[in-house]
Structure formats: structure tokens, C-alpha cells
Amino acid sequence: MTEHLAPIVVIGTGLAGYNLVKELRKLAPAQPVLMITADDGRNYSKPMLSTGFGKNKTADELAMASAADMAEQLGIVIRTNTRVTHIDPKAHKVFIGEEPVAYSKLVLAWGADVITPRVQGDAQERIFSINDLQDYSRFRTVAAGKKRVLIMGAGLIGCEYANDMSDGGFAVDVVAPSEQLMPSLLPKEAAAAVQRGLESLGVRFHLGPLVSRIERHGEGVRATLSNGEM
Question: Which residues pair with 46 in a beta bridge?
Fold first, then answer.
């Protein structure tokens, strides 16, 4: 395939990727487009991942359209559950394993990477990151029937999850190595007000230490903080 006939390749089917293709379609209705995504390609609003528990929404209920629906709506090809393993910008190709895929233009729209915490212990598989609908679905399945959750991080998403999980009937502990909530977003007075509001819902904060160890404990886990608290 020559370069001028190759599609525009968009890696990622999140809000940025889909919105870009929607705008592209207004300018170039016939332009070939290939989207490649590591997940199942469903279209959804990512902020709903941190409010779904309070609304008692399943992953399917948060999804607005399937990848097949989006492909038909936008007149594009979407390859789901597929990871790009290498990019060759000189040759204008991306690689899926050994398979080369030519592109005329390349857009990286894969969003934020998950930061994996460095925690000791034998319960690593019980630490969950929620970065897409599939993550959310797995976590909802595991959380079913549970009563207590520990959240690592007191940034915007951590605080949203604390509020949402509390609204969903969970007892919530938040651990964060900071002196206040959302230190990069809020002044101390505003952060203190948010903390008081969440504490009024029953959320407990452990500000300053890190989670240093997580071990299996019956059906759940036991967390040890860097200050020795358990």
C-alpha cells in the first residue's frame, strides 16, 4: 500500500480518539481511518468510571456504543484488543507483533498510563487500577459483596472514588503521601473543606504514609503503611 493510499491510523479509542475522528469526518468523509485499541473499543465517558458505583451502573450500562457501532457510524475500521508493539516513523508503519500496518498520518491517543505502586506482600493481584471500562468491570465483579475498600491516592480521581464508593455503601480508607487532598489542584483551605465533607460520609484519611505491604487476609487483604499502621 502506497503512503497516499494508506489510512490515518489512530491508536486509542478513548474520548480524544473518537472525537478526533468525528471532526475528521466533517473535513474528509472518504478518508480511510484505522483505529487500534488495546481494550474492547466501547465508547464511554471516562469520568463515569469514578462515579459509576454511586449510580450502581455496570460497565455495560456506562457504555454508549460498541466498537462495531462506532465503526459503522464513522465509516472506519477498528481493531480491538490489539496492541501496537513498535512504531517505525521513517517507514510510516506501526507493527502489531510482526504485522506491519502502513499509515499516512499517525495519531497517538492512548491516554494516561497506569502507575503501578511498588508494594510488597503476596496480594499483588488484589490491587486494582481502573483506567478503562474493562478495568471497571473487573473491579465491580471483585468488589461485589465486599464492605470495605482502600484507595491509594488523594488526588482528584482518588477523592472522586472515595465519594463514589462511600455512596455505594462501602467503608472507605484513603492513603496518600501528602499533607492534604489534591495538593496540585487546591489550596489548603479548600482541600480541608473537601476532606471534612468526605469525612462526614465516613471516609477515613491516612495522609503522609504510603502503603508498603499488602497481604492476603481471608477473603480480603491487610495493608501495612510505611508508618507501621495497619
Answer: none
DSSP states of 64-128: SB-HHHHHHHHT-EEE-S----EEETTTTEEEETTEEEE-SEEEE---PPPPPP--BSS-GGG--
Pairing of strands 8-11, 204-207: unpaired
28-82 confidence digits (pLDDT tens):
999 999 999 999 999 998 888 888 888 889 999 999 999 999 999 999 999 999 9
Ramachandran bin of 203, using left for φ above 0, alpha for ψ from -120 to 50, beta for the remaining angles:
beta
Q: How far is CA 147 from CA 140, 142, 171, 172, 189, in A?
A: 12, 11, 6, 9, 31
Residue 185 CA from chain centroid, whole number: 20
Residue 110 dihedral angles phi and psi, to the nearest 5°: -90, 0
Strands 93-96 and 99-102: antiparallel
CB 62 within 8 A of CB 49: yes
